[in-house]
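Bench notes, afternoon.
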Amino acid sequence: MEPHIQEQKTDYRPLGVSGLGGWLILTQIGLFLTVIFLAIQLVLYCLPMLTTETWEMLTSEQSEYYHPLWGPVVIFETVYNTLFLVFGIYTIIAFYSKKSIFPRLMIMFYSVSLAVSIIDYLLLLQIPMARELEDGSSLRDIGKSVLTCAIWIPYFIKSERVHNTFVR
């Protein structure tokens, strides 16, 4: 008689926690809210600034509201919001597809958001009318963004759940 050889099956499932639960639920909510807010920002603020009347009011040297930076700032904000909206949608798709690139996308998402907030704030400070209208909300938003980066970037680098979930 030949000895019975039992075939062993290897379990390739990751050890530890995985899946789209835990703190990743907050990431999902944040991504969806960001996409919604970006869409609202585009429709209610950016696109109306590109209408002929508003554009002329801000960029015509004859206007009392003129400043040479208004045109570049409006274009910068519109392009950024449009690209970031598309990036947000792509990131959501990568999230639900459990793509291995997702953690890097989120690190980029938070970092770029912080950098653009600072650049936008510094540009707006150069425009007297915008500086007068600044009520501190921009600095609060930058502070929130710094805090967000300080919490979530290390999470996406160190989390066992993130490491075990985004493997495709």
